[in-house]
Amino acid sequence: MKIAFFANDKQLAELQEKEISDSRKHLLKVDYFSMEEKLLPMLDCAAYDVIVIYPKGGTASCGEIIRQVDMREKYTAFFNGHTWVFDIQDIFFLESYYRKTSVVIENERIRIRAKLDEEEGKLPSDHFIRINRHNIVNMQYVKNVKGEAIEMQNGDVLYVNDTRRKKFEKKYLKFLEINFMLL
Questions:
Q1: The pLDDT of residue 56
Q2: CA angle, 152 as apex, 133 and 115 as ends, to 5°?
Q3: Does 103 have pLDDT greater than 80?
Q4: Distance of alpha carbon 176 from alpha carbon 183, whole angstroms
Q5: Cα separation of 58 and 5, whole Å?
């Protein structure tokens, strides 16, 4: 994946100094450009998957922005001889009942042949968390949390079990802190 960062000269120096702490950084090609160079209008946008214009006084680190971009990854699953490819950012949650696993995208449930334990390892752990033995949720689509009830943006209500509640609360608060300051 190719990413272009545009920033003023001071921010540019800070961005380039910071190490990208991403386990997949070997898959990324990151280029840095100064806003003073006026290259943005001439930039061939097709050459980059993502272009980030660093905000004036922005506090997000390069690594945080790349974690946001990382959600554009694909998730592949199989069922009845068909291969399903989903954008990870579109998945609300995975559920497994009666030895059947489904990927939930908005109000659509797509059955796949998979064990929830194995699928958990395929999903980025900074956005997905297991809340009980049946569900893995994308924290991006959590609308409301009241006690053990988690309301998703599509209206489904899921329940976090007691043994996983503390871990969920801690991870969800960290997720909110990192991801919703980047709006």
A1: 57
A2: 30
A3: yes
A4: 11
A5: 13
Characterise 106 by phi-psi region: left (phi > 0), alpha (psi -120 to 50), beta (else).
Answer: left
The 10s digit of each residue's pLDDT in 9-28 is: 777 676 666 655 554 555 56
Q: What whole-number distance in Å separates Cα of residue 29 and Cα of residue 23?
A: 14
Label residue 82 by pLDDT band (50, 70, 90): confident
Predicted TM-score of the model (pTM):
0.61
- Side-chain-side CA neighbours of residue 66 (13 Å): 23
**49: which DSSP letter?**
S
> For residue 22, what are the CA distances in angstroms to 64, 72, 95?
9, 15, 28
Mean pLDDT of the chain, nearest integer: 78
Give the residue among 15, 16, 8, 9 at the shortest CA–CA distance from 56: 8
For residue 161, give the nearest of 123, 139, 133 by alpha carbon: 133
* Torsion sign across C-alpha atoms 110, 115, 120, 121: negative
CA-closest candidate to residue 155, choices 84, 90, 92? 92
90-104 in b/e form (b: 16+ CB < 10 A) is: ebbbbbbeeeebbbb
| Residue 182 pLDDT level (bands cut at 50, 70, 90) | very low
Q: Are 101 and 95 in contact (CB under 8 A)?
A: yes
